[in-house]
Specification:
The protein is an all-alpha fold. The protein has 54 helices and 6 strands. The strands form 3 sheets. The protein has a two-stranded antiparallel sheet. Strands 3-4 form a two-stranded antiparallel ribbon.
Length: about 1250
């Protein structure tokens, strides 16, 4: 095998030289030229590895795989020594080789080479019949065919290279030739000791190699090409090597390896063509190719597949994010050819870990990997359903986008996918989130358009949701009638919608989607994909009627088959809620189906606890669609049982259903075609009088309704709810309020015969009555009265002015009001703002303005709203200070409600963002209420997108307010100290992560991505520690705030090493000046003998550490005030010293790096993407008070501070920094036309900046 050893040496030398040139950094050595050559070389080797004439391709690929694998593993531990672009090239090449090997092994498993396992000819099966077994796969064509003389199978002459003129006397097919050859050679090479008669794979391979050798010998003899003879010699040398290895391993088959070796070596000298043809049988080209494939599958490279796969799996868990990402992409190539690898436990474990990787690029690569896998194997999609859903809310846009694409493709390829409801629900949530990226949102909209609103699918039934062609489904409502494919599409789409609503528990997200598809979304960039969105709108409008018909048919089918169980009740509500979506988006489509829905208003649907939801939903559908009733439809419905059923709902059901029923009845009464004094108006008025009479009768029954019976309280609750709804929804056409509405003009009418809708008489009397109920001592009654009064405010905004003058507004949000009343008042204000917004956008405000007789012509033409539109907002704006105070409420629900209201005020431009942002930042300190923090965070992100500089400027003020928020809101500990913390802890399974309360603000805003803004923010926080120029002493009350700020600086989410270096630089400047000044002041106070600033540990330090500190011993009793103040001053410096040590340890900052750092230097590439060490405990800076409330010094605490300050300052002196005041050196002037060298400007900046060096 000396010849083969030479080949191996040449191969290794070639690969070594090639890889050395490829891995050089930059353009050195032409690396950019050699890397494409390497990639092309591997592509070519993979193409020729199955060709018999290129047997050395396997050797080159094996050597390449070893070298690439070792380079990638080496890069794991020496990342800085390997260039990033080479890593990408190497990983791609390694992935190509591994995927090619995986493909070979998979093909061999799926189409194994079937050869005889026994040496006995009797074991070979006899042919049963003559069949066409030609490998081309074609049938019995009208062409010349040849019969195998052994198995009598037929083959096309053109496929096996035989014509009518060259038919041999006897011809065997490839399978028979192989089987005969194996049996013949088994007789020759079988061991003579009577061993096993079972032929192994190794025995088969010897026969297969002999066929290849014979083919190469014939080729070399019949052609003048030298490469055929070289290939023959290489095959012999390789065969001898395998024989030697097999013989040394002791694992031999049936063949005698010495005989085989002698036979192989004897063929080194080629036989003549005539001798070769006479001594060996030949195979067709297809037979030779099959042999080559079988040998490749058993080659050394294929046998190394577990090692290749192990390298990829190891790199998936590497500490370098780029390697993890590249290994996932390489593994994706492997999975694409062999998806079964994903079922291996080790593979799933690594992929699952990558789903929660800290790097966005790694998570994206993992999601892409799983996505391609589940699309190839839809039946296994359920195994990765939950992880993919988690990635739908990933912080990385690219990860979310990839997850959406995967679910979109799954739903399009498999509409009946079991997890479609949860997947669609999650997609709808993402689309409804205003923070979502436009690209992600567009993907979701397009997916739902195809799934539910595809026009071509309706017309032709070609959508993926359509059922298979020629399938006919009997219509359940018309027996014997079949449904068209478009109807089947509608039915499936309707079912999916109902499932989504059922999973969501609310139709809110679906309503937002349908409205957007019909009338357009509020996209941020209107110029992007405008034509596509317009097409979707037109398409969606055309299909809504078919979808509504399908939903009604589903409802009727469900009604026939339901079993009145609890699950059926949920399904019933989901069906009606889905119909309500279209009543909100396209109400005229529901008009033809109102007769189908009206019977459900009777409340006897057998749904038990779901009856309220059912009647409420149907009432809302009737209310919304009633505006589109024709006069004939209105007359027919109102003459029936509809008004009576709505009135009965008001008498029987809870307030939520009462409000919906009253709104429906009011809209029927307000219909343009309804006459004055119509039946529905009379029923509405009679109901109002009845409830008014009840409230009038019982208003003075007691000052506290909580002491009354439950039935009585329920009746009062119903009466207030119904009257408030009537005041809100019934439109009094002649009830225009004067501009100067008299607040004292509202009186309770005791004679109910004087009540009437006209002139707002009933509304004014109800307002006065509600005011009396608001004065009841029962909190629930107060809330109900306020809710009822809110109906008057919404319909008559000028009454809000009267309420403000009467002190009602101030009272309900005052400190004296119970928290429940405060919450209800804030909720009412939110509803008022939303109702006013809807009134203006719908055109109702303009319509009301045009109905007024005294309005000018110019106002009629230019105005889009009446004079009442700004009243509610202006009244609320006057109470802005009180609203800000409510953010400090000790009641969590009040805080959450006020933040919600502030969000609406900001959106409508009714309060100043500059004044509001610090309060929103303060709420980030509400660590016990994640919902409130999240709501405030959304508002901060919105404002940050509009005004990023303003957000950065206000964070420092927000930090202070967050501290005072916790100090005010949270209870104190047993010693009376407020429980204040700037840190949050979350458990991630394998570790506990510490965040600050402002982490999400910085991550979600633009501050994190802009260095100047980051440094401005950090400088602002550090400035809190700077000495007050107007005072020589530190205020002891400010020390907890400084500890709070130091915790934030310690754990902010830094993205580059430049950030902690910036902090350390400025901390060192403060401690070097102020810290040393305090040490000198201690020396002056205590005397040089007792406290030498340049000495090591003194007596006071030792006494404080041992707990034997006695101020009298050191003569400090008379200097208590001065000594205590110096200790307070030290408490300003100590957090900085501790923070500096913490950052150096947490981010592995060396003294050399700190010394050479200047704030103006550019960020270094290798210092980006840093993270805090997992082994570092959370930063803590707790300072015990030096003085008590009576300003008496606590000597123990003062001694501890002194004993901490002195040694920390001594340690800091070794690393102390000073500003180099040497004159600026001039930069050499460049000649004209001379290019600036890289680093010239950076050096100039460094010279222009203060120099930092060891003292």
């Amino acid at each position: 095998t000396s010849g083969l050893d030479g080949c191996v040496a040449v191969c290794n030398q070639f690969i070594s030289q090639m890889m050395q040139r490829c891995c050089r950094k930059g353009e050195e050595g032409g690396a950019s030229e050699f890397r494409p050559i390497l990639s092309n070389l591997i592509d070519d080797l993979l193409l020729v590895r199955y060709l018999i004439e290129f047997p050395a391709a396997e050797m080159l690929l094996l050597s390449l795989s070893h070298r690439l694998g070792s380079d990638l593993i080496r890069a794991s531990s020496h990342s800085k020594q390997v260039e990033a672009t080479y890593l990408a090239t190497a990983m791609d090449a390694f992935g190509k080789i591994t995927s090619a090997v995986a493909s070979t092994l998979q093909q061999n498993r799926e189409n194994p080479f079937k050869l005889p396992d026994s040496m006995s000819p009797e074991d070979s099966p006899e042919p049963q019949e003559e069949v066409n077994r030609c490998f081309c796969g074609r049938g019995n064509l009208d062409t010349f065919m040849v019969d195998c003389d052994r198995c009598h199978s037929w083959f096309h002459g053109s496929c096996i290279g035989i014509t009518k003129d060259t038919v041999p006397d006897m011809w065997f097919c490839d399978d028979c030739t192989l089987q005969t050859a194996i049996l013949d050679q088994a007789k020759v090479f079988a061991r003579s000791n009577g061993g096993s008669k079972v032929l192994s794979t190794k025995d088969h391979n010897h026969v297969l190699r002999q066929f290849l050798l014979s083919y190469l010998s014939r080729t070399a003899e019949s052609s003048s090409l030298p490469h055929a003879d070289r290939a023959r010699e290489f095959l012999i040398a390789t065969w001898v090597k395998y024989l030697t290895l097999e013989n040394n391993s002791g694992k031999q088959g049936t063949f005698d390896l010495n005989l085989v070796r002698s036979h192989v070596v004897a063929q080194w000298s080629p036989l003549s063509l005539e001798q070769n043809n006479r001594s060996n049988s030949s195979l067709t080209a297809d037979g030779n190719q099959r042999i080559m494939s079988a040998l490749v599958a058993s080659s050394e490279l294929s046998a190394s597949f577990p090692r290749l796969l192990g390298v990829l799996l190891k790199l998936m868990g590497d500490k370098i994010a780029s390697l993890r990402k590249l290994s996932l992409k390489a593994f994706l190539q492997v999975v694409n050819v062999d998806p079964t690898l994903m079922s291996q436990p080790s593979v799933r474990k690594e992929v699952s870990r990558c789903f929660h990787d800290g790097a966005i690029s790694v998570r994206e690569a993992a999601v892409s990997l799983v996505g391609d896998y589940v699309l190839q194997s839809p039946n296994l999609a359920a195994a990765f359903h939950a992880p993919l859903l988690e990635r739908m809310v990933d912080s990385g846009i690219s990860v979310r986008k990839r997850a959406v694409k995967i679910f979109r493709d799954i739903l399009l390829s498999n509409p009946s996918y079991g997890g479609r409801a949860t997947a669609m629900h999650c997609m709808l949530q993402r689309a409804d989130d205003r923070k979502e990226d436009d690209g992600v949102r567009d993907l979701i909209h397009e997916a739902f358009h195809i799934l539910w609103f595809n026009g071509k699918a309706f017309e032709m039934g070609k959508s993926s949701l359509s059922l298979a062609t020629d399938i006919k489904l009997e219509d359940p409502n018309n027996r014997g009638k079949t449904m068209t494919r478009a109807q089947l599409y509608c039915r499936e789409a309707a079912k999916a919608m109902v499932e989504v609503v059922k999973v969501s528990g609310s139709p809110e997200f679906l309503t937002s989607l349908v409205k957007g598809l019909l009338f357009g979304f509020n996209e941020g960039d209107k110029n992007k994909k405008t034509a596509e969105r317009m097409r979707r709108q037109v398409d969606s409008r055309n299909q809504c009627n078919s979808l509504v018909l399908a939903l009604v048919e589903l409802l009727l089918s469900f009604e026939e088959s339901r079993a009145h169980t609890e699950e059926d009740g949920k399904e019933f509500v989901a069906l009606l809620s889905t119909l309500s979506v279209f009543s909100q988006a396209y109400p005229e489509l529901l008009v033809p189906h109102v007769d189908t829905l009206v019977p459900y208003l009777k409340g006897d649907n057998g749904a038990n606890k779901y009856e309220t939801l059912i009647v409420s939903t149907v009432s809302s559908i009737v209310s919304l669609s009633s505006r589109h009733f024709s006069s004939a439809e209105l007359a027919r419905l109102t003459q029936g049982e509809l008004p009576t059923d709505l009135v009965n709902i008001a008498y029987k059901f809870p307030p939520s259903a009462v409000s919906s029923a009253v709104e429906a009845l009011s809209n029927l009464a307000n219909h343009p075609d309804a006459s004055t004094g119509s039946l529905q108006e009379k029923k509405l008025f009679n109901m109002a009088v009845k409830f008014y009479t009840y409230l009038l009768k019982n208003k003075n029954k007691t000052k506290n309704f909580s002491t009354m019976k439950k039935a009585f309280r329920h009746n009062v609750q119903r009466a207030l709810s119904a009257l408030g709804s009537i005041c809100r929804y019934y439109e009094c056409h002649d009830g225009f309020d004067n501009h100067n509405l008299d607040p004292n003009g509202f009186h309770v009418i005791t004679d109910v015969n004087q009540l009437q809708f006209s002139g707002n008489v009933l509304s004014s009397a109800c307002f006065a009555l509600f005011r009396e109920y608001l004065e009841n001592d029962d909190e629930q009654t107060k809330c109900l009265a306020l809710r009822a009064m809110n109906g008057v405010f919404i319909s008559r905004p000028r009454v809000v002015l009267a309420a403000a003058q009467l002190g009602i507004i101030s009272f309900v949000i005052s400190e004296a009001a119970p928290p429940s009343v405060q919450i209800e008042s804030l909720r009412c204000w939110r509803d008022i703002l939303l109702a006013e917004e809807i009134r203006i956008e719908s055109g109702a405000a303009k319509q009301k303005m045009q109905m007024q007789k005294d309005i000018s012509l110019s106002k009629r033409i230019s105005g889009d709203q009446d004079g009442d539109s700004c009243i509610s907002g202006s009244v609320l704006t006057k109470h802005a200070d009180r609203l800000y105070e409510l953010t400090l409420s000790k009641d969590e629900k009040v805080r959450q409600m006020i933040i919600d209201l502030i969000g609406h005020l900001l959106r409508q431009g009714l309060i100043n963002p500059m004044a509001t942002v610090p309060h929103l930042l303060a709420v980030q300190g509400d660590v016990k209420s994640p919902a409130t923090r999240s709501l405030a965070l959304k508002l901060l992100i919105t404002e940050g997108e509009k005004r990023p500089d303003m957000l950065r400027q206000r964070i420092c003020a927000g930090l202070k307010q967050a501290y005072y928020f916790q100090k005010e809101v949270y209870p104190h500990d047993s010693s009376g100290v407020p429980r204040v913390t700037a840190l949050l802890s979350r458990d991630e399974g394998h570790k506990v992560v510490t965040d600050t309360i402002f982490d999400q603000v910085i991550k979600e805003s633009a501050i994190r991505n802009k260095r100047a803004q980051r440094q401005g923010l950090l400088k602002g926080i550090i400035s809190l520690f700077e000495k007050d120029p107007d005072s020589e002493h530190t205020d002891a009350d400010q020390l907890p705030l400084l500890a709070f700020a130091s915790e934030i600086l310690a754990h902010l989410p830094y993205t580059a090493l430049n950030d902690p270096l910036f902090i350390v630089y400025h901390l060192s400047c403060i401690t070097a000046l102020d810290g040393q000044s305090i040490i000198n002041q201690f020396a002056e106070l205590l005397g040089g003998d007792l406290c030498d600033p340049n000495s090591e540990e003194d007596d006071i330090e030792r006494a404080a550490k041992t707990g034997t500190f006695d101020p009298n011993q050191f003569g400090l009793q008379s200097k208590s005030a001065e000594f205590g103040q110096l200790c307070v001053n030290s408490c300003r410096i100590l957090p900085l010293l501790q923070l500096k040590d913490f950052l150096c340890e947490a981010y592995n900052l060396s003294e050399a790096r700190i010394t050479e750092y200047v704030p103006s230097e550019k960020e270094r590439i290798h210092e980006k993407g840093v993270s805090i060490s997992d082994s570092i405990p959370a930063f803590s800076c707790i300072m015990d008070p030096i003085f008590d409330s009576q300003q008496n010094i606590n000597w123990n605490n003062a001694g501890k501070v002194y004993a901490m300050m002195r040694p920390m300052m001594r340690d800091s002196e070794d690393e102390d920094l000073h500003v180099d005041t040497e004159p600026l050196k001039k930069t050499p002037k460049r000649k004209s036309g001379q290019k600036r060298k890289l680093g010239d400007f950076d050096d100039a900046l460094a010279q222009d900046s203060p120099k930092v060096s060891p003292d």
